[in-house]
Design brief:
Length: 70
């Protein structure tokens, strides 16, 4: 998961929090569809946690801030 997200993230030009969330979800969901985790001992709950960690790390890498209402 990490290798795929890291490699694909090199091509991101104008990220937003929404874009990064969709980006990470799409990559990992496609891996699930391809049954890349079928021989691993990882649960769907753990995969969701990993997705959230990747999104948060990419948000930090791109120095994005959550917009607060005025």
């Amino acid at each position: 998961m990490a290798d795929s997200v890291e490699a694909a993230s090199k091509s991101i030009k104008n990220p937003s929090i929404e874009y990064l969330t969709t980006f990470v979800n799409d990559i990992i969901d496609n891996q699930l569809i391809d049954k890349q985790f079928s021989d691993s001992n990882i649960s769907l709950v753990e995969i969701e946690k990993v997705k959230n960690v990747f999104v948060n790390k990419l948000i930090n890498v791109y120095n994005l801030r959550v917009e607060y209402p005025k």
